[in-house]
UniProtKB/TrEMBL annotation:
It comes from Agromyces hippuratus. The keyword Signal does not apply. This is Cytochrome d ubiquinol oxidase subunit II. Its main location: membrane. Its EC number is 1.10.3.-.
Amino acid sequence: MDLTVLWFWIVAFMFVGYFVLDGFDFGVGMSLPFLGKDDTDRRVLINTIGPVWDLNETWVIVAGAALFAAFPEWYATLFSGFYLALLLILLALIARGVSFEYRHQRPESRWKKWFDGMIVVGSAVPALLWGVAFANIVQGVPLDADHNYTGTLFDLLNPYALLGGVTTLLLFFTHGVVFASLKTEGDLRERARRLAAKSGLITIVVAASFLLWTGLAFGTLWFWILAAVAAVALIGGWIANLRGAEGIAFTLLAVTVATAVLALFAALFPDVMPASNDPANSLTIENASSTTYTLTVMSWVAVFCLPLVLLYQGWTYWVFRKRVSRASIEAAAH
């Protein structure tokens, strides 16, 4: 396989890992106002992702580093043209991380309420803007002959991109609420399951609209295959949640996120940043990539390092596999 093609799909795999893992973190964060009846409930929800959220978030750092090394032209165009949107994502992630660490430092309810609000916003903003960003990448943006973005922030907020953002927002929310039902007990678990049933139905309608629009405008054979898998997995996950099979529901939603992201990359390939104003200005896997020598060295590094990362990630989830209960949280407070 050509190294540029290989690294296109390695970058896709890393973004899949990020959206599957940090996606349910976003969903749990956004669920605090809906599921957190009191401070103990909110602490239970935060503790479901407490041991893993920072590990999940590192996937976006690895994906960005791989993008920079393998496709420097793509990285430069993306991060300069989408600067304000990506800055908002970064600030939101910082606010969320700070809130996880600081909300328990003082006992006042006003203090905790402030940081809980930051967790919600810090989860919702990336969940929305990542969808907006990837939808714009797929449909193309105006580029000049030097591959510089010539539009504005408001050009990125077009109907198709906003629908993509709402799709990821709802998909991550449902993914996170199902994870909350998988990791909690008692009344909180039941309320999470009922909320996932409601949000899942809305997600199915919105996601179907976005995938259909994408397929009709930019679809390839592989896009339609992956989109079909994503649709079936999403509906299957919703049905599994209705039946109380949280493990199956969570797995199917993870498959939904993974195949939906891969479908967008399939619609994009072999471009990496299409130019909406002039196809001659588009960035492709060929004119955006690093040298063959660089990609060869990176491939050997990936062969040795990626399995270690996956093993460590799996071990972490195994260690923290047990459910979090109100009783354990209340006991820890004394």
